[in-house]
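Preliminary data (for renewal application), iron/sulfur cluster complex.
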Amino acid sequence: MGEMHVVLRHRDIPDLHDLDVYVAHGGYAQLKRAVTTMQPAEVLDIVKASGLRGRGGAGFPTGLKWSFCPRDVYPKYIVVNNDESEPGTFKDHELTLRNPHQVIEGAALAAYAIGAQAVYIYCRGEFWQEMKVLEAAVARARAAGWLGQRLHGTDYTCEVYVTPGAGAYICGEETALLNSLEGELGQPRLKPPFPAVAGLYARPTVVNNTETLANVPPIVEKGAAWFKAIGTEKSPGTKVFCLSGHVERPGNYEVPLGTPFEDLMALAGGVWKGRALKAIMPAGASSPVTPAAKLAGLPLDWERVAAAGSTLGSASFIVLDETTDMVWVADKTTRFFQHESCGKCSPCREGTYWLKQVYRRLVAGQGTAADVDLIGDIARQIDGKCFCPLGEFALSAPRSTLQLFREDYDRAAAGAAAQNGQAHA
Amino acid sequence: MGTLQTTFPAEIQAAIANYPPGRQASAVLRLLYLAQAAYGHLTPEAIDEVSGILHMDPTQVRGVAGFYTLFLEHPHGGYVVQYCNDLPCALRGADDFLPVVAEKLGCRPGETSADGLFTLECVMCLAACDHAPMMQVNLEYVLDLTPEKLDALVAEWRAKAAANPPRRPPFGFGPPSEMAAPHG
Ligand SMILES: Cc1cc2nc3c(=O)[nH]c(=O)nc-3n(C[C@H](O)[C@H](O)[C@H](O)COP(=O)(O)O)c2cc1C
Ligand code: SF4
Ligand code: FES
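Predicted structure:
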């Protein structure tokens, strides 16, 4: 199976970021058609029937999420999650820079479907350039009458705003994002209530990932049946896979869900330097490593990656070749999660700190066999005791590498023992 | 009026207008960026001015400023170099390239160069792992680094600074730009 560009259409259409080019290729026509000829419920039904699932990590059915918003409570909001901070993920970066109008049109269609009149696009603070591109795109689309007040002579109004984060991975978690957007500390909220019921300013809010929403205009245009015919039954459509690490050509590759692992790797030129594959992390730093043996012939969709012991998440494949030291990998991810723990709950805040100390010792050649055992002990004190999923994300790499590649840990501890032995000799 | 209000009066109004009436606290991140641009870093006066404009408790604003990595609590160089050595970049040699960056800039991670021009920081993933080694300089992407590319850039920055000292501090969130050219 090869590439198929439903959201990365700019790869085939030069200058698609330009409003005129976007409109010349059918852009904003679906929003106009929806607003002037369709009921909101019709838009919602098409998206529901398409089986579109969230591309931000959890894979939750998008139309179903939209339908949880109560009908008669106003105002409502659409929030675009453009926080993209998971190590190994860089698809929303490309989408917002190269195809911003498709994201904006998708968000506006979502707004129409749930009866929202305002969209906030929350961008991680480092997406300075993305924010400029999005703001310029919104301003031009608004000036041309594609967005704004009383669209196309109807009563429907849709305003789109770009809003900045300021450097915090946790603000990708939807309730932390909403707190950040309200001017509070970017820490997660207790759920329920879910954002669909009480989200931004305690109003019904749908938070969707950038890539999820970019799928909506083509779905409304071509219909649910078209979309369902791509991908697999439970995971329809295409997915942008971000390939990083030890591949020949790292980058974004959009392929139908269910594409076999080998086909995806072939698009990126395979493992670099002619080396063998050791493992991948299929959903960035927060996912358990999946060893090469489990990847052979694996169709890449949410169900089957889960069955292989990991998670597809937002499909950020960090590729690890045969020379990779898994203790070093887990040290890197542990440093990430320790840095990004929001500090709200102690199992995560303290636990990631202790894990980091243990890994620092191991990679510095000062660890012991007792340190290796300590990893499991600390993990047990974090697991199931955290306020939000980040705490458990921090355990994915340590636990899975320890279980699957114990020899790397033994080597780290033995190296330290040998060093200590020399020191005492 | 404080430095922020005299420097960016229109930008402040535009920032607040992005949010519904009464929800001006939502503009706090935008205003902190502006304050950083006006004051150089987030001094106590900067925090107080933002709190005053938004009718927020200064303690809350201080907490918000401290929560995020892009808010600077002390002076930085004119070019803030945020070099990524997180896992995906490190798999493609980012740790090995770091000493090269440090040497060319004349400062180690966490430090500012003696001439005050550069501050080097190691940061987590910047969503451009397919272009490692990479960094952001005052939040602009610099991708696919090589020693030659770095040499040329550093020379360019030094020449620019000699002609016209860089505006301190680096990050200010200005009003919507004209059509920006995409890249990356
Ligand atoms: C710690 C953490 C970080 C997250 N980061 C992101 C992110 O950067 N982007 C994103 O779209 N979703 C992220 N999510 C998932 C969001 O909470 C949410 O599920 C998603 O935005 C929903 O959109 P979707 O249904 O379109 O996937 C994160 C979740 C957690 C727990
Ligand atoms: S698990 Fe970590 S990130 Fe989540 S609320 Fe607790 S401290 Fe914050
Ligand atoms: S790890 Fe460096 S940009 Fe992602």
